[in-house]
Structures are given as structure tokens and as C-alpha cells.
Protein: Glycosyl transferase family 1 domain-containing protein
Organism: uncultured Chthoniobacterales bacterium
Amino acid sequence: MKLLIFAHTPPPLHGQSYMVDVLLRGLGGDRRRGRDVTQPATAEDVHCYHVNARLSDSLQAVGSVGPRKLWRLVRYCAEAVWCRFQYGVRTFYYVPAPPKRGAIYRDWIVLALCRPFFPRVIFHWHASGLGAWLEHDASGWERWITQKLAGQVELSVVLAEALAADAARLQPRRLAVLPNGISDPCPTFAETLLPQRRSRLAERRRVLDSAASQVGETLVYRVLFLANCTRDKGLFDAIEAVIAANRELQQTAPQLRMDLLVAGAFVDAAERREFEEAAAAHTSTIHYQGFVAGETKTQLLRDADCLCFPSYYPAEGQPVSIVEAMAFGLSVTATRWRAIPEMLPNAVETVPIQDPVALSRALLASMSADTALQSRSRFEQLFSRDAFLRGMRAAIESLEDEAGQR
């Protein structure tokens, strides 16, 4: 089966572009570029043709509009139509927009120009909130155009049951639920990292169980914020929660302290200035790591004790950083938002959005919680790369089987 993947791979690097790259590589690479092609046994029958529809050159430019982006978009659409006839590609893979007008209008252009040429369309929903936007915020004519151009595609793939309503609003002919999956970033977890996590947990429990006035070396509980550094990703809630938790620890367990490691890129200058002011006021607590990738990110995840992910980002889907954190056996303290609760082990309690007090209590509770093996098991059960690729391949090939039966 031939598949046209109309979506961009890094850079810029974020959850969606990362997962498109995982999919493209896992299904054998771009057939037009022989050096990128691999032949994994699990995907030998799906031939991909990739239009790398990158409109933004940096995270800061994501979401902006302008004539340069429009020109790029039209050029990418022309490339997709050319592939349709040059290679006989009949299935069009696309990632729908988050609930932002500029991005939705971009989808209209792509679907108006490309969909007439492709008999089958697959939507892979990484963002959420479009259904609610159509229901409550869109005008009548915006709803009509969106339904006309994006309605009744052959297959919609969503990341979790909690996100299915967006896809269902556009009445796809078939809907599949398939979580993200990544290559195991910590394959030696049981032998190398689990003993360290259990040792650190035992130390924290010993301190928490001892007298509050006991004197000794300070034990640092490393809380990692790994996301775009924005307010609605929960950055400032995380800062407030960690500061409050440290005030509590000063009273109850002065040998313990939380450090907040902030890793990610800023997209708003005002928010960056606000963060820098907070970091300057709490230099011993807040540590900015910048944007991280590769071995630097791996080391951060190995060294951290807990991931703090208090997002209320409107388009939040299934954050890859939570998947990565569970692969490293981190405790996860996160909000009750979108698909996040569905991702976590059953024993993990989430907190309400925009509630730093509840977040602080959850961080304090995580210090004595034995969740390393639960987190790791959750990753292995639901979020492996092989399971993701098997599911995507089966969903894609089901369209070919269905077409052959007509």
C-alpha cells in the first residue's frame, strides 16, 4: 500500500513532529529518498512518500501566519498532488489542526487542494479541542466549511478514548484508538536505574520518618518540568507548587528540599521575563536547563525523581514527555486534563488544573510513593514503538482491505 504522509518532521522538535518521524521511519522511510529508506519486517508492505510540510522554522514561529507560510503551503500541496500521479499514491495521511483559527484555515487550504485527488484520507489526531471549538466558538460558516472539507474521512486515529470526541464530531467512516509509542530510551532500566530509584526512595522515607529537627546532609528531590515553557503548559503553577512544597518541608523535614529543573523552549518573551524574575528570586530552587534533546535529555530523565506536568494547554493530546518519564520510572505529578489521566498508572492521582496548592500536596506525596516500577510497566504495556507501529500498520492496511472488498 502507498501512503502520502503530509506532515513535518523535526525541526522544530515537539511531540507531534517527533511522532511523525517515528511513524515515517518505522514504516520504512520516504521512498523518494533511497538513503532514508529502511525495510523493517513489520512494515514491508506500506510504502511511504513524505511531503515534509514544515511551515515554521522554530517553536517561536509556530502558530503565526504570513505570506511566506502561505506560499510554502501551496507548494507542499502541489508536491502532494504530483506524488499522487507520479507514484500512484492513493492514501493521504494528515494531522488536523489544534483549535486555532489560523491553523484551521490552513487545514481548509490543504484539504481543498489535496483531498479531491486522494480516494482515502487518514487523520491522525495529535491535538485536541477542535470538536469543542466547532461546537461553541466557530461561526456557522466556519462549521459548514470544516465539515465540508474535513468531514467523513475514511479513518481517524486518536491517541486515547478521552480524545475521541474531536474526531467523532467530523463523522469519520472509521475511528481507531492508538496511543503514541516510542523506542525504549532506557532499555537497561531494571538493571541500572531501578535500584537507584529504590535507593533514593528509601533515603527519602528514612528522612520523612525521622524527627523534623534531625541535622544532616540535605537530600534533594529533583522535580523536572519538560515541555514548552508556557503558562498553559503549567510552568508557573509548577514554580509556585515547588516553592510552597519547600516551605512545608522546612517545617516538617528540613533535611529534604525540592529543586525544579525546567527544560524547554520559551515561545513568549513576556513569559520568559516573568520566569527569569522568578528564577532570580529563587536561585537555589529553580534551575533552567534550556531546550534539551539527545543525551542531555536522557541524563536529565535519569537524574530526576519526578516529572511535574500541570498542563491546561487547550490542544493537549498525549504528551510524549510523560511517556518518556514513565520509561525512566519517574513519578508523574500531572493535571486531570485531556488524555493525561488515561496515560498514567491507575494508582496515580491527578490534580485539578490551575491549582498550585493541590499540585504542591501531590508533589509532597510523590516523595514517599513507590511508583518507579508502575511507571515503567505502564510504558512497556502501552507506549512501545513496536506496538504503535503494529497498530498504525494494521489501521492503514485495513483501508486497503476494505477497498478490495468493494
In short: Residues 87 and 139 are 39 Å apart (CA to CA).
